[in-house]
Design goal:
70% helix
Length: 110
């Protein structure tokens, strides 16, 4: 088990790298790249949990796709936090509506 843990010095180097990339002002596409790279540097997920990283990549790519030509817009950390928060809340709302509709249809109601 202890063999799976990064040496403390390596973890500190990785954290500094990620924190350094998650600061300042940069384009949305740069933020998405920094987040994706940071996730890869700081996580080790396998087996039954590997889907979580794939799902996060899909979500981040969806944010980028929805931005379209605005992907080059310069954002600060507070901006990207708000954008991601709104994205995930919107998706939760859509899923809840879809689930409620499916339940009504399963019960024979429209």
């Amino acid at each position: 088990m202890i063999d799976d843990v990064l040496p403390t010095a390596e973890l500190v180097v990785r954290l500094r790298t990620v924190i350094g990339r998650l600061s300042g002002t940069q384009s949305l596409s740069s933020w998405i790249t920094a987040l994706t790279d940071g996730i890869a540097l700081l996580t080790l997920v396998g087996g039954d949990d590997a889907w979580q990283v794939s799902q996060l990549h899909r979500e981040l790519n969806d944010v980028l796709a929805r931005a379209g030509s605005r992907a080059g817009t310069e954002l600060r950390l507070a901006d990207i936090r708000q954008l991601l928060h709104r994205h995930w809340n919107d998706n939760r709302t859509l899923l809840a509506r879809r689930d409620a509709k499916q339940m009504r249809l399963a019960d024979g109601h429209r």
